[in-house]
Amino acid sequence: MKIGFIGVGNMAQALIHGMRIEHAEWQLFGFDIYAPSLERAAANDGLIALSSAAEVIEKVDIVVLAIKPQQYDGLLKEISSSIRKEQIIVTIAIGFDIARTQSYFAEPMKIVRAMPNTPALIGQGVTGVSFSEAVTDAEHDAARTMFASCGTVVDITEAEFNIFGAVAGSLPAYVYIMTEALADAAVQYGLGRAASYEIISQAISGSAAMVNATNMHPAQLKDQVCSPNGTTIAAVDALEREGFRHALMAAVQACMTRTKELDK
């Protein structure tokens, strides 16, 4: 398979790195106006650096548009006449649904809309994907395989992309704030800063893994930690009184509101 990246920033480099590890036989091409990014991907993962977006399109089966959302309009206008209808176009920009991408082309195109989150940078991401009607079952599988190089892939509908972004795309920020706050508390009570981060991050990772590994309701898992009249139930009571649950739901609501504003 020949895959080309127009834009070779952090997310593209995560995908390139994952693909190189999982599928050494794939040919990976790329172009970026920022030469250091292109050079880094070429040096680290054997990306074949090209001199233009047009050259990428000429050589590949799958074209990944890995640029900033505000650059999509100009790029799609530039490449709309050169992309072949048998090629797959992959978008990873907030606000560009399949219909909006299709609007730049006269014929029905093979479009994959994807939204990876930042843990893809270490192969632990989750990516939501959706497909235009022109994409075949075999091409569905190829796109899923591509993103599976960097973590978990889930099929979602176009209508679900905004909420996916609010809970999966933004969630790393919520976890980082929680990690920092818990570490501050741990330091306050005498635990070293480095040890606090290591302990807390592993505890978060293990707890998240329990949800998938046991297939139990999160409330059941929470109850298993809360002994009668114990320390954890006292902590849970404090979280409820301080509005922890509501704060998370409000964060998702704020994210959804802002996403709708950006979509206009």
List the helices and strands and how they pair.
Blueprint: E1 2-6, H1 10-22, E2 27-31, H2 35-45, E3 48-49, H3 53-59, E4 62-65, H4 72-79, E5 88-91, H5 98-102, E6 110-116, E7 125-131, H6 137-148, E8 151-155, H7 161-169, H8 171-188, H9 193-214, H10 218-225, H11 231-241, H12 244-263
Parallel strand pairs: 1-2, 1-4, 2-3, 4-5, 5-6, 7-8
Antiparallel strand pairs: 6-7
Helix pairs in contact: 1-2, 7-12, 8-9
Brief description of this entry?
By secondary structure, this protein is α/β, with parallel strands linked by helices. Helix content is 55%, strand content 15%. It is built from 12 helices and 8 strands.
Provide the descriptors you would attach to this structure in a database record:
264 residues, alpha/beta, 8-stranded mixed beta sheet, 8 strands
The unreliable regions are none
Average pLDDT works out at 94
Number of strands: 8
What is the terminal-to-terminal distance?
36 Å
Order of helices and strands: EHEHEHEHEHEEHEHHHHHH
Largest sheet: 8 strands, mixed
Beta-strand share of residues: 5-15%
Helix content: 40-55%
Rg, alpha carbons: 21 Å
What's the arrangement of strands in the largest beta sheet?
3-2-1-4-5-6-7-8
Structural class computed from helices and strand pairing: alpha/beta
> What coarse outline follows from CA principal-axis ratios?
elongated
Number of helices: 12
